[in-house]
Amino acid sequence: MRIDDYNKGFYIEESGKRRYVPGVYEMDELAQEVVKQMEEAHFRPDLILAIENGGTMPAWKIDHYHIEKTRHIPTVASMRLKSYSKTNCLEDKRGELTLFYNTTPKNYITKKVLIVDDLLDSGKTAERAFELVYDWFGDDVCVELGVLWWKYCSSIMPNFYGKCVGRVWILLPKDQERPRKELFAKSVTPSCKSE
Fold first, then answer.
1. Parallel, antiparallel, or unpaired for β 98-102 and 75-82?
2. Measured distance CA(97)–CA(86) in Å, rounded
3. CA distance 19 to 49
4. What percent of the chain has pLDDT over 90?
5. Where are the alpha helices (DSSP H) in the chain?
6. Mean of the pLDDT values across residues 146-153?
7. Which numeric CATH code is attached to 25-81+97-174?
């Protein structure tokens, strides 16, 4: 195994399902791509709002690269949406997405909000986040969505994204129960450029 291959993203096959394991530095590269697209669109948010848990790290990375490029410093906050009533999500059906908490400062006034998540799958979480942001700040606020991975089967399209992927399941670090080295040993391709 070459270190170069290990650091790139790769696919594994398990139980007849194809899964994608992102590269070690892929999150950084995709966050930089999101910032590049924001700059091309001349979008400079006052507030970067992460959808927890997955959007927390991407939001901080996007904030870092955005400040580095523009010297514009937005506020970073997070919201947590919850749709499962039981602690074991696998045994519970997904219900309505309700706000668990929001760390945006009280009475905060903003004109531009960037909602950030790691991955846009069905689009339901992002849709609910948009509704909440409009409820908090009014209809005049400009709200954009930035994600690292966008599954083209989602109900909405992000304004900024790092990579468009198919219906493949993405095994993010938070979801990996086994060490990366063990997953790499099962890879069906050493690296992946696109779906």
1. antiparallel
2. 14
3. 28
4. 34
5. 3-7, 26-40, 56-70, 124-137, 180-185
6. 92
7. 3.40.50.2020
Domain ranges of the chain: 25-81+97-174
Higher pLDDT, 154 or 85: 154
CB under 8 Å, gap of 24 or more: what pairs does 171-178 form? 171/12, 171/19, 171/20, 171/21, 171/22, 172/22, 172/54, 172/118, 172/119, 173/22, 174/53, 174/54, 176/21
- Residues 104, 81, 58, 32: what is their CA dihedral angle, to the nearest 10 degrees? -90
Note the pLDDT of residue 190. 43
CA distance 131 to 100: 15
CA atoms of 147 and 122, how far apart (whole Å): 13
* SS3 state of residue 189: strand
> How far apart are the C-alpha atoms of 98 and 166, rounded to whole Å?
28
| Residue 31 in tokens | 């966050």
In angstroms, rounded to a whole number, what is the distance separating the alpha carbons of residues 25 and 78? 23
CB 81 within 8 A of CB 98: yes
Judge contact between 36 and 65, C-beta under 8 A. Answer: no
Give pLDDT tens digits for 102-116: 777 777 788 999 999
Helices 26-40 and 56-70: angle between axes, nearest 10 degrees: 50
DSSP letter assigned to residue 174: G
